[in-house]
Each structure stands twice: as structure tokens, then as C-alpha cells.
Amino acid sequence: xxxxxxxxKIKQRLFSGIKKQHPVTVILFLSLIAIAIIFYCCxxxxxxxxxxxxxxxxxxxxxxxxxAYWIAADINxxxxxxxKEQVKHGRDLIAHTSRYLGPKGSIAKISNGLNCxxxxxxxxxxxxxxxxxxxxxxxxxxxxxxGTIENVxxxxxxxxxxxxxxxxxxxxxxxxxxxxxxxxxxGSNVGKGKKAAGSGFKDLAYLDRAADTTHGKVVYIAMxxxxxxxxxxxxxxxxxxxxIYPALWGKNSYTDGAGLYRISNIAKYVKYNMPQGITYxxxxxxxxxxxxxxxxxxxxxxPHKNEWKDWPDITRKPVDxxxxxxxxxxxxxxxxxxxYQPIADEQLKKEKAQKDKTAxx
Length: 361
What we know:
This protein is mostly helical.
């Protein structure tokens, strides 16, 4: 309620009338006026974005979509002491793989010094950072890369051989059992056959050109070199037992048989997770910078993994798989660096033609 100048007589009548009423009636009346004033002020244009300093709400840090993203099951909720210990050991193996199985490993010396969480951030629990949210729910599953149905053990050993440039570990051994127990537990809150929201990588639109390694080098120097060093060699901790910042190329990095050797995968990874501390909520790199720095990193020398059995059905090869032969007319160069949209369009055209042919039978 707002009085304009000259409304003194109205105010006198109103308040003299109030004084004559029963005290309870007066209190109720004044309360209604207060509520009306608060409602009026809070709904004025421009007030919706204001908040009391120090206050917070769900919308301050999370959008509606964020609330639905997968959150790893809580290890502290495990009541069986032996199971809890196994799962915690599995987490430690993921977070600090090199301490146990790297060049100076306390258990075995079978890998290049990278940790699993260098590719699967926060021990495989971070949203859109190659997390393990969907592993328990989707495995065993058919994978076109091998042309077979794979279980979790096969998938873990793939990482040891390809990303860690190491040797397979015994599927019945303590370490493998702990790793699988951890992966299965943290994804145990996802229904069988369902994909956890926020798992894998966040989509990134194709460029309308080939990725530019020259510009990628500029981006690397400006944004990545301070952590991963001038020659991509990464930075080791004080006792050299594991990397603080992993090697991105060279003898101690992932092989050309790893999933990150596909430029689309590493572009999505760096776009929404790098520089360190960045998340999908506030990416720092532009799309062009992400594609170009990914191309630069993957253009550098690294260990070769002779996986000639990969993609037995070549029609299933991803658009950016960098090794031929292919079931299309595009070159190996274009499959590696792009532009990818023409390849994707042709693949969709062929898939549609095949579906139409099958439907007509």
C-alpha cells in the first residue's frame, strides 16, 4: 500500500478506524498489509536476480539438468568391512595406478607411469570426464572396436595395454578384483541397461574445416604447457612414483591404440575439463581451440600399438578413426583431422539406405 502526497486525511481515517478495533483484529490486519508489501516488492522487475549476501540456493550452483546427473554411490555406505576395504583399494588403484603398477610400482612394474584417473577424472566419478557411471549397468556389451561382447575385465585390460602402454593384469588377481569391485560399486545406483546421465564425454559440434595443428600449438603453449611442459612430457612428483601432470605425448604417454588418440575424444575431454579445475559448467576453451589443441597433441610422437584386429567391420569405424582401410572415399588424413561432417553425412546416408533395403524385404 502506497500513499501519495495529499493523502493525509485518508491516512487519519484509516488509522483512527484501526485503533477502534479489537487488538487481535488489528494484528491480523497489519499482518496482511505486511505480506502484501513483501509480495509486491519481491515481484518487481529486476528483483528476481537479487539475493542476500552470503545466501545461496540450488539454482546458484546447479541448473535443473545438473540435478539429474549421476553421482557415484558412496563407499562409506558399505557395511561389510571386507567389501569396503576391497572397494577402497580399487579406488586407490584407479587414482594412483603408477604407485602400484608403474615404473616404480610397489606391486609390479607393468605400465608407463600414468594413472587411470588421468583419463577418468576424480577416480572415474566426474561428470562428462570419462567417468565409470555406466560401466556396471551396460557391461557386458558388444563393442564394434573388437567386434565382440566384452566384459569389464576385458575393458580394464584394454586400458592397461592401450592407454598405460603396459601389460594385462590377471583377471583373478587381487588388483583386478579390487578395480572391478570399485567400478561396479560406484555405478551400482544406475539401473541395468541404462546409461548414467553425464557419463562419457559431452557432445562437441564438428568444425566446418580440418583441425589446425599449427593453431593448436599456439593454444597448447598458452593454456597447457605450464602444467604438461614444453615437450608434452608432463611433471612427476618428488619421488617420481606418479605424475602430477601426465605426459601427453612421448614414450610415457598413451599409445595410438588408445581411445584418446581419436581427436574427437580428446577434444571433448579438454573442452569440458581443461585447464585443470575447469568443468563442463564453465568451459574456458572455445570449440575451435579444443579441436585444434587436440589435433596438435595427437600429431606428436607416441608409442605405437599394433591393433590390426580393431574394427573387423570397417563400416563401423568412427569418422575420426585415424587408420584405414575405410568403407568410404575419404582419405586417412581427413579421417584423422577432418572436416568430419561430410564423412558423418555419408555414413548416415549409407545406414539409411541399408535400413530401407532391409525394410523392403
